[in-house]
Structures are given as structure tokens and as C-alpha cells.
Amino acid sequence: MRSNGMMSRTMRGCAIGLVGLLASVTGMAAEPGWPEPVEDNPVLGLLLVDQLEYRNGDGPDTLNWDAQGWVGTDYNRLWLRTEGKDRRSGTSGGKWEAQALYSRLVAPFWDFQAGLRYDRLYGSGQDRDRGFAVIGFEGLAPYWFEVTPALFVSQDGDVSARFSATYDLLFTQRLILQPRFEVNAAAQRVEEFDVGRGINDVGLGLRLRYEIKREFAPYIGVSWTRKLGDTADMARSEGGETSDFAVVAGLRFWF
């Protein structure tokens, strides 16, 4: 009996000590000025130049780029994108676009995006530009295809859409083949920007890169684009080409 009483008192003492320790720890965590135990939602950023390449093809040679960057948390981000081409042979000119988007994680590997897009065409004639509202998604489809469907409404109410998909096929940890597919379509004919109604064009690319470092990779490849339907008819009427096959060489880097 005496032994049981001592054990009971010992257990009560341990319990009281444990409660006091928990109260002390809780009190310290609640003190103002103490940092959060775990920072699980930091603000991060990335800049990826996916394509910076020279294209030698059936038409004029061009310098092309496709870059994007973001800053934010796992759930909310600001995305900036730009792509375009500048003619390096024949008559001068080219086109480029830029997008600023708010991105929200809505499902694992999927972001909803909305924002603005600005296009500009320049050359020997009068420069032209226009703005768009943008809504779309970016994410990983089954089998790890990275897809980006987007819908655009211009300042004049013209509606267009774009769908692109890429896939990284690893031969080794450094040698990677990337197929790319893109299609553009429009609901209205906009002759000022050489856009017809319906499916405007399709593009296919195949680029083989070698990652000297994960952040730096030269590549070579091929690119093919084909104008279709009303857009192709407009190109023919102006004496232009409806398809272009090019050999490309460039750099991919990020930081």
C-alpha cells in the first residue's frame, strides 16, 4: 500500500510537471515578436527563357524568343510572358506579344490564369498594336504533358484562342528531346493583323537540348508552321507563304 501511494504521488508530480512545461512552451510561442515555427508559404520567383533561337527556314531567317517568369507563393502568383520573332534577312520587321497574368492554384499541378495581353507588329509599313483580356489554364495533363489553353478577347471584341503542349523525353539526365505543338484559332476575321476566321495555323517543333547545367542548355532542332483556312487565303492573296520549315539553334536557361 505504501509503495502504491508513493507511485501515485510520483505520477501526479510528473503530470503536473508536464502540464507546466506545455504551458511554458505555449506561452513562449504566444509571445509577440516570435517567428512562426514553420514558414510554409514563402514568396519565390523564377525566370525561364525556354527559347532563344535563330531559325533558318524557307522564308526569312528570324530570331525567336519565348520567355516567362513568375513571383509569388504556391497558391497566388504574378506571371509575365513574352514571345515573338524579328526578321534577320530580307525586309526588316517582326512581331511580339507580352502578357501579365494573375495565377491561382485551383488543383494539384493546375493554375487558373487571368490578365492582359499586348501585341505589336512592326516593319516597313505602319506599326500595328492591340490589347486583349486573357483567361486560361496552365498545368500538367496525364502522362506529364505540359499544356496551356487560353482564350483572348481583344479591345475590339474579337475572340481568339490558343492551345500549346510540350513534353520532355529524357534520353539521359542531361540529353532531353522536347516535342512542341501549338494551334491558334479566331472567331472573327481581322485583316489588319493577318488573322482569318477559323483555325489560323498549327505549329510543330522538335528540339534536342543538352543540359550542361540544369540552368543552362544549348539545343538544336526543327520547326514547322502551317497557315490554314481563311488565314492561308489571306497570305496567298498578299503573295506570302503558307508554310515554313526551319532548322533552329538556340539556348534555354533559367534562374
SSE blueprint and pairings:
Layout: H1 2-30, E1 44-57, E2 62-72, E3 76-87, E4 93-107, E5 110-123, E6 128-141, E7 145-154, E8 159-166, E9 169-170, E10 175-186, E11 198-210, E12 216-227, H2 229-237, E13 243-254
Antiparallel strand pairs: 1-2, 1-13, 2-3, 3-4, 4-5, 5-6, 6-7, 7-8, 8-10, 9-10, 10-11, 11-12, 12-13
Description:
This protein is mostly beta strands. 15% of the residues lie in helices and 58% in strands. It has a twelve-stranded antiparallel beta barrel with strand order 1-2-3-4-5-6-7-8-10-11-12-13. The relative contact order is 0.12. It has two helices and 13 strands, in the order αββββββββββββαβ. It has helices at 2-30, 229-237; strands spanning 44-57, 62-72, 76-87, 93-107, 110-123, 128-141, 145-154, 159-166, 169-170, 175-186, 198-210, 216-227, 243-254. The longest helix has 29 residues, at 2-30. The protein is globular.
